[in-house]
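Table S2 (continued). Query chain:
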Amino acid sequence: MKHAVISLTALILCVLFVTAGCTAAPKQESSAPVSAASSVTQPAPATVDEPVAETVPASPDSAIADEGNITYNELEIKKNLSEIESKLDRLIDDQHFMGSVYTKVGNDFDYIKAKGFANQGAHVENSIYRSGYVGSLTKLFTATAVMKLAEEKVLSLDDTLDRYFSSCIYGKDVTIRQLLTMTSGIPNYLTREPVRGSAVTLNSDLRDKISADGADENNKSTILSWILSRQLQKDKVGRFDFSDSNYYLLGEIIGAAADEPYETYLTEEIFKPIYMNKTGFDPEYVTARPYESRQETAALLYEAVGYSSVGAVSCVSDILRFLDALVGGQLVGSESLTEMLSDGGFGYGFGVFVSGDRISVADEIDAYKLKLSFTADKKQIFAAMSNYSESDPAQLHRSFRDYLVKYRNH
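Corresponding output:
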């Protein structure tokens, strides 16, 4: 637990460092520590979008990437801190980005910025402490819970689904490991268009069966019944195919193995121990209200629709805490962590994309967008969230990376 909370002194130094041009953290929220904002205890970072192999379909994070394993000249960065910060400020302004951003390069550069409003009507400013939906970052939370239970011998990654879903027509053919690696061939209950930036929507088969005011269990039962009754896509079994259904099923497996609801297990075993106090699955955790909500994507925010695949709410501050704890060995052991964050052969680990030393997640849920990129050596982190559909954290990340390339080692 000692790595989960940054010392007050380190936090103050960090905030003082980025104060010039930084509107991120309102005074009333300054008591919430930012674990990964400290360059001393930071978790693994990265700053690259993933490569797209011919066999890898479009996904939330399938941008063309440069090569991984980029290192930076930290001495040059240290000499040019003011210039770098000013340039990053301009990039945010030029892209009219609304949301919060944290980036870290090496041991001497941490940058925090927030723009726009968490509640436009009430004139409440955005900050790294304002929470919104984080989409597929939920999958990394879910994968962590699975590995914790595997370490405790409560489940095995080689378990087949018939152990948990007696009526599943493909129960004997799919393992937990295949769910984690997206190689099961199970059709997706969400629709993700191949064009980057297009909205994620609920599968058309389910749209008339899900209700905004329907009970949590009713919506979940409807989605589970749909997923478990599909025929496997035989041409995709054993190959990477991004399907949110895989991680939806993992939520039920976690609940069965832990003998308590999925949400309760994650809250008690992951979020609370490392003081992720603004992270959860209840809409009440949302403190960054969307600038607008789109009718075609609104169903993603209904109870139990996102669940263990895309349903978590968090903030940049808590995400940094999570990275610190995950990479620091507080949540799972080193062998589990290596397996989670390694390329399984398709540019994907467990809930994350992997490109060289870069590990990343990006997604869009209604008006909420997220980009997280980090390297396991704790040298580079980029985390950005937006509550404005016209903002693009992934594009902002590419712009930051393209500018910082002048400081890379050759």
